[in-house]
UniProtKB/TrEMBL annotation:
PANTHER family: ALL TRANS-POLYPRENYL-DIPHOSPHATE SYNTHASE PDSS1, GERANYLGERANYL PYROPHOSPHATE SYNTHASE. Pfam families: polyprenyl_synt (PF00348). This is Polyprenyl synthetase family protein. CDD domains: Trans_IPPS_HT. The keyword Transferase applies. It comes from Propioniciclava soli. PROSITE patterns: POLYPRENYL_SYNTHASE_2. The keyword Transferase applies. Keywords: Magnesium, Metal-binding, Transferase. InterPro entries: Isoprenoid_synthase_dom_sf, Polyprenyl_synt, Polyprenyl_synt_CS. It comes from the Bacteria. Its cofactor is Mg(2+).
Protein backbone atom coordinates (compact mmCIF):
# COMPACT_ATOMS: atom_id res chain seq x y z
CA UNK A 1 0.00 0.00 0.00
CA UNK A 2 2.87 2.39 0.79
CA UNK A 3 4.46 1.67 -2.58
CA UNK A 4 1.11 2.20 -4.33
CA UNK A 5 0.58 5.49 -2.48
CA UNK A 6 3.92 6.86 -3.61
CA UNK A 7 3.44 5.54 -7.15
CA UNK A 8 -0.02 7.12 -7.42
CA UNK A 9 1.39 10.48 -6.29
CA UNK A 10 3.89 10.48 -9.19
CA UNK A 11 3.52 13.47 -11.52
CA UNK A 12 4.90 14.65 -14.87
CA UNK A 13 7.61 16.83 -13.36
CA UNK A 14 10.06 16.18 -10.51
CA UNK A 15 8.78 19.31 -8.74
CA UNK A 16 5.11 18.25 -8.63
CA UNK A 17 6.15 14.74 -7.62
CA UNK A 18 8.25 16.18 -4.80
CA UNK A 19 5.40 18.34 -3.47
CA UNK A 20 2.76 15.63 -3.84
CA UNK A 21 4.91 13.13 -1.93
CA UNK A 22 5.89 15.69 0.71
CA UNK A 23 3.28 14.77 3.35
CA UNK A 24 3.14 11.09 2.36
CA UNK A 25 6.87 10.79 2.99
CA UNK A 26 6.52 12.55 6.35
CA UNK A 27 4.52 9.60 7.72
CA UNK A 28 1.10 9.86 9.31
CA UNK A 29 -1.02 7.29 11.07
CA UNK A 30 -2.58 5.78 7.89
CA UNK A 31 -5.76 5.49 9.94
CA UNK A 32 -8.10 5.44 6.92
CA UNK A 33 -6.10 2.72 5.08
CA UNK A 34 -6.08 0.71 8.31
CA UNK A 35 -9.88 0.86 8.44
CA UNK A 36 -10.15 -0.17 4.78
CA UNK A 37 -7.93 -3.18 5.42
CA UNK A 38 -9.66 -4.26 8.66
CA UNK A 39 -13.15 -3.90 7.16
CA UNK A 40 -12.05 -5.90 4.11
CA UNK A 41 -10.84 -8.74 6.36
CA UNK A 42 -14.25 -9.43 7.90
CA UNK A 43 -14.81 -11.71 4.90
CA UNK A 44 -12.10 -13.75 3.21
CA UNK A 45 -12.69 -12.99 -0.44
CA UNK A 46 -11.39 -9.44 -1.03
CA UNK A 47 -8.87 -9.19 -3.90
CA UNK A 48 -5.67 -7.71 -2.39
CA UNK A 49 -5.21 -5.37 -5.38
CA UNK A 50 -8.66 -3.85 -4.78
CA UNK A 51 -8.02 -3.43 -1.04
CA UNK A 52 -4.82 -1.54 -1.87
CA UNK A 53 -6.63 0.69 -4.39
CA UNK A 54 -9.44 1.47 -1.93
CA UNK A 55 -6.87 2.31 0.78
CA UNK A 56 -4.90 4.54 -1.59
CA UNK A 57 -8.06 6.44 -2.60
CA UNK A 58 -8.95 7.15 1.03
CA UNK A 59 -5.45 8.21 2.13
CA UNK A 60 -4.85 10.41 -0.93
CA UNK A 61 -8.22 12.10 -0.49
CA UNK A 62 -7.35 12.71 3.16
CA UNK A 63 -3.88 14.04 2.34
CA UNK A 64 -5.33 16.28 -0.40
CA UNK A 65 -7.70 17.77 2.17
CA UNK A 66 -4.75 18.40 4.53
CA UNK A 67 -2.92 20.44 1.86
CA UNK A 68 -5.99 22.67 1.67
CA UNK A 69 -6.68 22.62 5.40
CA UNK A 70 -3.19 23.84 6.29
CA UNK A 71 -3.63 26.80 3.94
CA UNK A 72 -6.98 27.67 5.54
CA UNK A 73 -5.59 27.21 9.07
CA UNK A 74 -2.26 28.97 8.31
CA UNK A 75 -0.59 25.86 9.79
CA UNK A 76 3.22 25.71 9.63
CA UNK A 77 3.81 22.14 10.75
CA UNK A 78 2.14 18.83 9.83
CA UNK A 79 3.30 15.27 10.52
CA UNK A 80 6.37 16.76 12.21
CA UNK A 81 7.58 18.53 9.05
CA UNK A 82 6.92 21.97 7.53
CA UNK A 83 3.40 21.99 6.00
CA UNK A 84 3.21 22.10 2.20
CA UNK A 85 2.07 25.74 2.31
CA UNK A 86 4.91 26.84 4.56
CA UNK A 87 7.46 24.97 2.40
CA UNK A 88 6.13 25.70 -1.10
CA UNK A 89 3.63 28.58 -0.65
CA UNK A 90 -0.18 28.65 -0.67
CA UNK A 91 -0.70 28.48 -4.43
CA UNK A 92 1.40 25.37 -4.94
CA UNK A 93 -0.09 23.72 -1.82
CA UNK A 94 -3.66 24.27 -3.06
CA UNK A 95 -2.91 23.07 -6.57
CA UNK A 96 -1.04 19.98 -5.42
CA UNK A 97 -3.97 19.21 -3.10
CA UNK A 98 -6.12 19.30 -6.24
CA UNK A 99 -3.57 17.12 -8.04
CA UNK A 100 -3.68 14.47 -5.31
CA UNK A 101 -7.48 14.50 -5.40
CA UNK A 102 -7.31 13.98 -9.18
CA UNK A 103 -4.99 11.00 -8.66
CA UNK A 104 -7.36 9.55 -6.05
CA UNK A 105 -10.24 10.03 -8.52
CA UNK A 106 -8.45 8.18 -11.26
CA UNK A 107 -7.78 5.26 -8.90
CA UNK A 108 -11.38 5.14 -7.66
CA UNK A 109 -12.59 4.94 -11.27
CA UNK A 110 -10.78 1.58 -11.53
CA UNK A 111 -12.92 0.21 -8.69
CA UNK A 112 -16.33 0.96 -10.23
CA UNK A 113 -19.17 3.46 -10.33
CA UNK A 114 -20.54 2.72 -6.83
CA UNK A 115 -17.12 3.64 -5.42
CA UNK A 116 -17.00 6.82 -7.51
CA UNK A 117 -20.47 7.74 -6.23
CA UNK A 118 -19.50 7.25 -2.57
CA UNK A 119 -16.25 9.14 -3.09
CA UNK A 120 -18.16 12.06 -4.66
CA UNK A 121 -20.74 12.17 -1.85
CA UNK A 122 -17.95 12.08 0.71
CA UNK A 123 -16.10 14.94 -1.00
CA UNK A 124 -19.33 16.97 -0.99
CA UNK A 125 -19.69 16.39 2.76
CA UNK A 126 -16.03 17.24 3.46
CA UNK A 127 -16.32 20.54 1.68
CA UNK A 128 -19.65 21.48 3.24
CA UNK A 129 -18.37 20.57 6.71
CA UNK A 130 -15.39 22.82 6.19
CA UNK A 131 -17.58 25.68 4.93
CA UNK A 132 -19.84 25.29 7.98
CA UNK A 133 -16.77 25.45 10.26
CA UNK A 134 -15.55 28.59 8.50
CA UNK A 135 -18.94 30.31 8.75
CA UNK A 136 -19.66 29.27 12.35
CA UNK A 137 -23.13 28.60 13.80
CA UNK A 138 -26.11 30.47 12.33
CA UNK A 139 -27.99 32.93 14.55
CA UNK A 140 -29.91 30.92 17.16
CA UNK A 141 -28.14 27.64 16.29
CA UNK A 142 -26.77 25.64 19.24
CA UNK A 143 -22.94 25.97 18.96
CA UNK A 144 -22.33 22.43 20.23
CA UNK A 145 -24.79 20.90 17.74
CA UNK A 146 -23.13 22.96 14.99
CA UNK A 147 -19.68 21.74 16.00
CA UNK A 148 -20.77 18.08 16.07
CA UNK A 149 -22.33 18.38 12.63
CA UNK A 150 -19.13 20.02 11.28
CA UNK A 151 -17.06 17.17 12.71
CA UNK A 152 -19.39 14.52 11.27
CA UNK A 153 -19.09 16.06 7.81
CA UNK A 154 -15.44 17.08 7.69
CA UNK A 155 -14.00 13.97 9.40
CA UNK A 156 -16.68 11.32 10.05
CA UNK A 157 -17.64 11.18 6.37
CA UNK A 158 -14.22 10.07 5.08
CA UNK A 159 -13.63 7.65 7.93
CA UNK A 160 -17.08 6.10 7.39
CA UNK A 161 -16.35 5.87 3.64
CA UNK A 162 -13.06 4.07 4.44
CA UNK A 163 -14.85 1.40 6.46
CA UNK A 164 -17.49 1.10 3.71
CA UNK A 165 -14.86 0.80 0.96
CA UNK A 166 -13.23 -2.06 2.86
CA UNK A 167 -16.57 -3.83 3.21
CA UNK A 168 -17.44 -3.21 -0.43
CA UNK A 169 -14.22 -4.65 -1.90
CA UNK A 170 -14.86 -7.78 0.18
CA UNK A 171 -18.36 -8.10 -1.32
CA UNK A 172 -19.96 -7.82 2.14
CA UNK A 173 -23.74 -7.98 2.55
CA UNK A 174 -25.62 -4.70 2.64
CA UNK A 175 -26.23 -4.80 6.42
CA UNK A 176 -22.48 -5.17 7.05
CA UNK A 177 -21.73 -2.15 4.88
CA UNK A 178 -24.41 -0.21 6.79
CA UNK A 179 -23.03 -1.26 10.21
CA UNK A 180 -19.52 -0.24 9.15
CA UNK A 181 -20.84 3.10 7.91
CA UNK A 182 -22.39 3.75 11.34
CA UNK A 183 -19.23 2.53 13.10
CA UNK A 184 -17.07 4.74 10.87
CA UNK A 185 -19.19 7.83 11.53
CA UNK A 186 -18.86 7.31 15.30
CA UNK A 187 -15.16 6.46 15.38
CA UNK A 188 -14.57 9.38 13.01
CA UNK A 189 -16.25 11.68 15.48
CA UNK A 190 -14.15 10.23 18.31
CA UNK A 191 -11.03 10.67 16.17
CA UNK A 192 -11.71 14.37 15.52
CA UNK A 193 -12.82 15.14 19.12
CA UNK A 194 -9.54 13.55 20.29
CA UNK A 195 -7.69 15.60 17.67
CA UNK A 196 -9.26 18.78 19.05
CA UNK A 197 -8.28 17.81 22.61
CA UNK A 198 -4.74 17.09 21.37
CA UNK A 199 -4.58 20.58 19.82
CA UNK A 200 -4.80 21.89 23.39
CA UNK A 201 -3.16 19.14 25.46
CA UNK A 202 -0.23 17.76 23.45
CA UNK A 203 3.21 19.13 22.63
CA UNK A 204 4.18 16.02 20.66
CA UNK A 205 1.47 15.81 17.98
CA UNK A 206 3.64 16.83 15.02
CA UNK A 207 1.45 19.96 14.76
CA UNK A 208 1.64 23.33 16.49
CA UNK A 209 -0.43 23.29 19.73
CA UNK A 210 -3.13 25.95 19.94
CA UNK A 211 -3.74 26.17 16.16
CA UNK A 212 -7.53 26.09 16.78
CA UNK A 213 -7.16 28.87 19.38
CA UNK A 214 -5.20 31.02 16.95
CA UNK A 215 -7.80 30.46 14.22
CA UNK A 216 -10.69 31.03 16.64
CA UNK A 217 -12.12 27.58 15.78
CA UNK A 218 -14.47 26.37 18.52
CA UNK A 219 -13.86 22.80 19.73
CA UNK A 220 -15.48 20.62 22.41
CA UNK A 221 -13.35 21.91 25.36
CA UNK A 222 -13.84 25.58 24.41
CA UNK A 223 -17.57 25.06 23.80
CA UNK A 224 -17.95 23.43 27.23
CA UNK A 225 -16.08 26.36 28.74
CA UNK A 226 -18.29 28.82 26.83
CA UNK A 227 -21.36 27.18 28.38
CA UNK A 228 -20.00 27.58 31.94
CA UNK A 229 -21.16 30.63 33.83
CA UNK A 230 -18.50 30.50 36.55
CA UNK A 231 -17.14 34.06 37.03
CA UNK A 232 -13.68 32.54 37.77
CA UNK A 233 -13.59 31.46 34.10
CA UNK A 234 -14.34 34.92 32.67
CA UNK A 235 -10.79 35.64 31.47
CA UNK A 236 -10.37 32.17 29.87
CA UNK A 237 -13.82 32.45 28.27
CA UNK A 238 -12.80 35.75 26.72
CA UNK A 239 -9.55 34.26 25.37
CA UNK A 240 -11.27 31.32 23.66
CA UNK A 241 -14.11 33.44 22.27
CA UNK A 242 -11.92 35.16 19.63
CA UNK A 243 -8.98 34.33 17.31
CA UNK A 244 -5.67 34.86 19.16
CA UNK A 245 -2.66 36.32 17.38
CA UNK A 246 -0.62 37.17 20.47
CA UNK A 247 1.75 34.32 21.48
CA UNK A 248 1.44 35.19 25.19
CA UNK A 249 -2.37 34.97 24.98
CA UNK A 250 -2.17 31.59 23.20
CA UNK A 251 0.17 30.33 25.95
CA UNK A 252 -2.17 31.68 28.66
CA UNK A 253 -5.22 30.05 27.04
CA UNK A 254 -3.40 26.72 26.60
CA UNK A 255 -2.23 26.68 30.24
CA UNK A 256 -5.69 27.67 31.52
CA UNK A 257 -7.47 25.03 29.46
CA UNK A 258 -4.98 22.26 30.28
CA UNK A 259 -5.66 22.78 33.99
CA UNK A 260 -9.44 23.09 33.57
CA UNK A 261 -12.09 20.43 34.28
CA UNK A 262 -13.57 20.96 30.78
CA UNK A 263 -10.68 18.82 29.46
CA UNK A 264 -11.85 15.91 31.65
CA UNK A 265 -15.46 16.53 30.61
CA UNK A 266 -14.40 16.50 26.94
CA UNK A 267 -12.47 13.25 27.44
CA UNK A 268 -15.53 11.69 29.13
CA UNK A 269 -17.67 12.65 26.13
CA UNK A 270 -15.09 11.07 23.79
CA UNK A 271 -15.29 7.84 25.82
CA UNK A 272 -19.12 7.84 25.61
CA UNK A 273 -18.93 8.22 21.82
CA UNK A 274 -16.33 5.43 21.59
CA UNK A 275 -18.73 3.12 23.45
CA UNK A 276 -21.35 3.88 20.85
CA UNK A 277 -18.87 3.03 18.04
CA UNK A 278 -18.10 -0.30 19.76
CA UNK A 279 -21.82 -1.14 19.82
CA UNK A 280 -22.05 -1.09 16.01
CA UNK A 281 -19.63 -4.01 15.59
CA UNK A 282 -22.03 -6.46 17.26
CA UNK A 283 -23.66 -7.42 13.93
CA UNK A 284 -20.31 -8.05 12.19
CA UNK A 285 -18.94 -11.58 11.72
CA UNK A 286 -16.84 -12.50 14.77
CA UNK A 287 -13.10 -12.98 14.42
CA UNK A 288 -9.77 -11.19 14.49
CA UNK A 289 -10.83 -8.36 12.20
CA UNK A 290 -13.87 -7.55 14.34
CA UNK A 291 -11.77 -7.68 17.54
CA UNK A 292 -9.32 -5.26 15.94
CA UNK A 293 -12.16 -2.85 15.08
CA UNK A 294 -13.19 -2.90 18.76
CA UNK A 295 -9.59 -2.41 19.93
CA UNK A 296 -9.24 0.50 17.52
CA UNK A 297 -11.85 2.40 19.57
CA UNK A 298 -9.53 2.24 22.61
CA UNK A 299 -6.55 3.35 20.53
CA UNK A 300 -8.44 6.37 19.22
CA UNK A 301 -9.62 7.39 22.69
CA UNK A 302 -6.11 7.06 24.15
CA UNK A 303 -4.14 8.61 21.33
CA UNK A 304 -1.97 11.60 22.07
CA UNK A 305 -0.69 12.39 18.57
C1 LIG B 1 -8.82 18.85 9.24
O1 LIG B 1 -9.44 19.55 10.26
C2 LIG B 1 -9.47 19.12 7.91
C3 LIG B 1 -10.31 18.31 7.31
C4 LIG B 1 -10.74 17.06 7.97
C5 LIG B 1 -10.86 18.49 5.94
C6 LIG B 1 -11.17 19.85 5.46
C7 LIG B 1 -11.80 19.74 4.09
C8 LIG B 1 -11.36 20.33 2.99
C9 LIG B 1 -10.20 21.20 3.05
C10 LIG B 1 -12.00 20.11 1.66
C11 LIG B 1 -11.50 18.85 0.99
C12 LIG B 1 -10.58 19.08 -0.13
C13 LIG B 1 -10.03 18.08 -0.92
C14 LIG B 1 -9.17 18.43 -2.08
C15 LIG B 1 -10.31 16.65 -0.67
P1 LIG B 1 -8.57 20.33 11.36
O2 LIG B 1 -8.04 21.59 10.82
O3 LIG B 1 -9.45 20.44 12.55
O4 LIG B 1 -7.44 19.25 11.71
P2 LIG B 1 -5.87 19.39 11.93
O5 LIG B 1 -5.70 19.56 13.40
O6 LIG B 1 -5.32 18.06 11.47
O7 LIG B 1 -5.36 20.53 11.14
MG1 LIG C 1 -6.13 22.21 10.48
MG1 LIG D 1 -9.04 23.07 9.74
Amino acid sequence: MEAALHATALADTPFVTEVSRHLLAAGGKRFRPLLVVLASQLYADAAPADVVKAAVVMELTHVASLYHDDVMDSADVRRGVPSANSRYGNEVAILVGDYLFARASSTVAQLGTEYVALQAETFARLVQGQIAETRGPAAGEDPLAHYLSVVADKTGSLIAASAMFGAMVAGSPREVVAALAAYGEEIGLVFQLSDDIIDIASDTSGKTPGTDLREGVATLPTLLLGASEDPADARLRDLVSRPLSDDAEVAEALAGLRAHRVMDDARAEVERRAESARAHVAVLPPGEARDALVALCDTVVQRSS
